[in-house]
Write a structure and sequence with these properties.
The chain has 460 residues and is an alpha/beta fold. It is built from 16 helices and 20 strands.
């Protein structure tokens, strides 16, 4: 087909201000090249803070619909989406797609191409069994990244290793993994492990992209968002009342810069992959800013069950068919009928600390109970839970506290850069609404969808 291909690199929540700071300091050469050869937009999520979540905004990017129109509020709930996404329209018109991990995605089958669901999806499966080993590995690694005991067997590791060896695993990624394992064996740099997933996904993305030659492809990266939420306090400690210790500051002061530099390497590889007839897009959906809302209370932390199945059994939940963790403290509990789900909801809501504070927030939709621990202040090691059956258990037996204090929060501004075959630098004067992106991509392929906003501002 005559239209230029599009590769959309979806780097969740990178910040315009930090991008400019790090480029000016000479730290991000590939992003500088991308910026200097692109049409540049600051995007606007057009939502209030309570609906400012990436799993909401990425659906807007992919469908052209605001939250009030698409209605999907929770991470992992994209299966409830009634609208079609960009890749569905493209596939219908016989354009080939390769969607690698886009957040909170839903796709129609059959699809003309390949889809790897995001790491938090419990209802979506890959479009082909070929991708299942990678899908399972990514889900378990990401959903349980705060847990020291990730539920992976030797057989699981063997399956994903076999997949990676046959799907583009590079020498540079292998070297990075071995270096990380060596550092961790010496008790150092365990926090850096999060960037390895981006390297693995890039290798697979590039391998399949070269093999399939899709017309439209996406690759999702979350490492910078993860580091900003955890380490903004270390980057700018002067903004926060709760100061990091000297040891923490020594280790993490450049953690966010490290994440941006790792993503800069990803951008460099994308620039190499994009030929003269390919448009390379860089999108962030949102950005972040310092989170100062809980400084007077010692900072915001979160608690999460050590083992979700054991947690459900201890509470006496019956009829549970599946438990799917998502981000931070939240998880889905699926039951085999609505009566069991309602009973499970009440059991979760009845869980108390021994001072009678409720422990859980939860709500039900059909057989699905979406829940999470609502204790966000640090508790002592002697904290006790009052179970619904009247017995008591130490909080630490069922929950662990994640290893950091929240220090970054969402901001409605994002970045959208378009490096088309002309490689023309063109900053836009006005903000671009996220809902304008999907119809503009479709218009590039001569597809018009009634009811979606149209814009001639984006030149693919």
């Amino acid at each position: 087909m005559s239209k230029s291909r599009i590769i959309q690199l979806e780097c969740n929540e990178l910040c315009p201000s930090l991008m400019e700071r790090f480029i000016a300091a000479g730290k991000l050469p590939n992003f500088k090249r991308m910026r200097d050869e692109s049409q540049l937009f600051i995007t606007d999520a057009e939502e209030q803070q309570e609906a400012l979540e990436p799993w909401i905004q990425w659906i807007t990017v992919h469908t052209g619909l605001r939250y009030e129109e698409h209605g999907v509020f929770n991470l992992g709930d994209a299966h409830k989406l009634q609208a079609r996404s960009v890749w569905d329209f493209l596939s219908e018109k016989n354009y080939k797609v390769w969607i690698c991990g886009s957040m909170n995605l839903k796709y129609e089958q059959p699809i003309n191409g390949l889809v790897l669901p995001d790491a938090w999806s419990s209802e979506r499966t890959p479009c082909t069994p070929e991708l299942e080993p990678l899908c399972n590995f990514v889900r378990r690694s990401v959903q349980e990244h705060t847990n020291e005991k990730v539920p992976m067997s030797k057989a699981d590791y063997f399956r994903v290793l076999s997949f990676l060896l046959s799907h583009g695993l590079s020498l540079s990624t292998t070297t990075a993994i071995l270096g990380q394992l060596f550092s961790e064996a010496r008790g150092r740099d365990g926090w850096k492990r999060a960037v390895l997933l981006d390297k693995l996904l890039w290798d697979v993305f590039a391998y399949i992209y070269r093999r399939e030659q899709p017309d439209f492809a996406t690759l999702f990266s979350n490492s910078c968002a993860h580091f900003q939420h955890k380490y903004w306090r270390n980057m700018e400690p002067e903004l926060f009342s709760v100061k990091p210790s000297a040891a923490e500051q020594e280790q993490y002061r450049d953690a966010i810069l490290f994440a941006y530099q790792q993503t800069d390497q990803l951008m460099g590889k994308a620039l190499q992959l994009a030929d003269e007839n390919t448009t390379l897009v860089f999108a962030t959906a949102l950005s972040q800013q310092p989170y100062l809302g809980a400084e007077d209370d010692g900072g915001k932390v979160f608690y999460r069950p050590h083992d979700f199945s054991a947690f459900a059994a201890t509470l006496g939940l019956t009829g549970v068919t599946q438990i799917s963790p998502v981000m931070s403290e939240e998880f889905h509990v699926y039951f085999d009928n609505e009566s069991a789900a309602e009973q499970g909801l009440q059991t979760l809501l009845d869980l108390r600390l021994d001072d009678n504070r409720p422990v859980m927030k939860a709500r039900r939709e059909g057989n699905d109970v979406f829940a999470g621990c609502q204790i966000f202040a640090k508790l002592g090691s002697d904290a006790v839970l009052q179970l619904p059956d009247g017995t008591q258990r130490a909080l630490a037996e069922l929950f662990y506290q994640a290893d950091s204090v929240k220090s970054g929060m969402h901001h409605p501004d994002g970045m959208f850069w378009v490096r088309n075959p002309s490689r023309t630098h063109k900053p836009a004067a006005d903000k671009l609404a996220l809902r304008e992106i999907a119809p503009a991509i479709l218009a590039h392929y001569d597809i018009t969808v009634p009811g979606l906003p149209s814009t001639a501002r984006i030149d693919f």
